[in-house]
Amino acid sequence: MRNFHKLDLIALSVCNAFLLPLVQCSAHEGLQKARSYRSIQDGHEKLSHQKRFDIQLHGLLLWISMGFLMPFGILTIRMSGRMARGSTQLKVFFYLHVVFQTLSLLLATAGAVMSLRKFENLFNNSHQRIGLALYIAIWAQAVIGIFRPQRGKKERNAWFLTHWILGTIISIVGIINIYTGLNAYHKKTSRSIGLWTVLFTAEISFIGFFYLFQDKWEFLQKQGVVLGESEALSPSDEQVETQRQNSKELLPDPCTKQNALRNLFD
Hints:
The structure is a single chain. By secondary structure, the protein is mostly helical. 79% of the residues lie in helices and 0% in strands. The chain starts with a helix and ends with a helix.
């Protein structure tokens, strides 16, 4: 019996020697995980008190700048392309374009200064890197717009293409960066961004539809479609024959070529 008792004591000692460290290690890991989770929650709570307002204000400034004013500035200058040169309406739309783009530039600059002063800018994520490139491109676009050559000069064509291409790229990349900013806000605050994503997508979809609809509006008017009427106007046979005769008289010389982009560079 004494021998069995000694064997039991030896077995218990061996089990304690091997199992007790494992139990202590697992308990320590569980405690570390609990502390880490609590620190993350405390970090989110601390962020909400100190920086959440700044992050929301930064996002609002860039939303209005890149997601609203800049696209509408592009729409106004696009609509002015179909107006008579020198008309008052053309001047109004041109100055609307200038005002929209200037306000967009000022708000984007305010958002950039705010991010440099109040946020940690390690540029280790796509949102910060794209934002830095956008700030530089926006100011370059503004300088290009200020030094606009007069009509008739050789530099006018190159200026137009540069201003148009750079402006289009800035607008598209700016919209993309708003989505990356919403995602970054979600990661920092753990708040839902579903509603804001839906609202911004609806706004951009409406602007895109209106942008594409401008090309078809003149075509619809030529087809006899009048706003507010459900049926197109159908001319009589006599009117059709008269229009046919007039069109034959007004046909241009077949040897001459028409340039579709001529009015853009005049």
